[in-house]
Amino acid sequence: MLNPKALRPTHRMSRLAKLGLVAGVAAVTVVPTAAFATTSATPSDQVVTFTSSPLISITASPVSLGSITPGASVPVNLGSVLLTDTLADSTAWTASVQASNCFLPTAGLPANLNTANATIPASAITYAPPSTGLAPTVPLSTTPVSAVGGTTQSFANPSTTGSLTAPTFGAAMTVATAAYDSVSALDNDGTYTLTPTMSLNLASNSSFVPLAGSAYTCTLQYTALG
Q1: Most buried of 6, 19, 82, 136, CB within 10 angstroms?
Q2: In this predicted model, what pLDDT tens digit does every residue of 71-122 receive, in sequence order?
Q3: Could you give the strand order of the β-sheet that contains 197-200, starting from the edge strand earlier in sequence?
Q4: Helix (H, G, I), strand (E, B), or coil: what is residue 149?
Q5: Residue 43 phi, psi dihedral angles, 5° rounding
């Protein structure tokens, strides 16, 4: 039989060991932050160089017209159309636009709908180019020239109907032009912000009848040459 007294020293040693471990953990957590090394005071510079390529481009954002009442011809703001020219080629630039027909969605239409007669032709769209404020918003030249807006008119119909996913376009009309005045090749360079408007003539006629309550999609395609 084991002597109970022989176990007591072992028990006391175990308690002391536990106390020592706890004390050791507590000491490790109190390390002065000044003991850590500092980073280098000398910065490292990286020089990056690039060359910008000359371009002429024109961009326009999507626009939602909301609900249009048949028979109404109310101008609708098409937002900002941005033309950027950095060609520096002493050449006038011209911005033009073409329109597709306006199509119904490809799904969710009533049964037996004659979609050809419900398609809105491009000629039902009247486009009004900007007529004022055509100075470049960000000119590259110290002697910039202003652009001249085109004429308000209806779009030409495409020669083929096209579709929502593959639109076709009629003849282009001028949005704006900008010549240079011979002072500098940069005179018509920079960014021009064009703000055209459009209106839809949805009055019923012999060529189409718009389907009420359905969303139509028309595509305006802009081109810049210079």
Answers
A1: 136
A2: 666 678 899 999 999 999 999 999 999 999 999 999 999 999 999 999 999 9
A3: 76-77, 197-200, 125-128, 153-154
A4: strand
A5: -75, 165
CB 187, CB 180: distance < 8 Å: yes
> Phi and psi for 221 in degrees, rounded to 5?
-110, 115
Question: How far is 38 from 11, CA to CA, in rounded Å?
Answer: 47
Helix (H, G, I), strand (E, B) or coil at 27: helix
pTM of the model: 0.78
Query: What is the SS3 assignment for 24?
Result: helix
**What pLDDT does 183 receive?**
87
Cα(15)–Cα(22) distance, integer angstroms: 11
Which segments within the chain are labelled E, that is strand?
A: 56-60, 76-77, 81-85, 93-99, 125-128, 138-139, 148-149, 153-154, 173-178, 190-194, 197-200, 220-225
Classify 119 as helix, strand or coil. Answer: coil
As a whole number of angstroms, the distance between CA 167 and CA 98 comes to 11
Instruction: Determine the Cα–Cα distance for residues 160 and 164; give it in Å rounded to an integer.
Output: 13
> How deeply is 174 buried, as exposed, middle or buried, from its count of CB atoms within 10 A (0-12, 13-18, 19+)?
middle
- Burial label, 156 (beta-carbon count in 10 A; 0-12, 13-18, 19+): middle
Which residue from 219, 195, 193 is spatially nearest to 79, judged by alpha carbons?
195
Cβ atoms of 201 and 210 within 8 Å: the answer is no
Burial tier of 155 (Cβ tally within 10 Å: 0-12, 13-18, 19+): buried
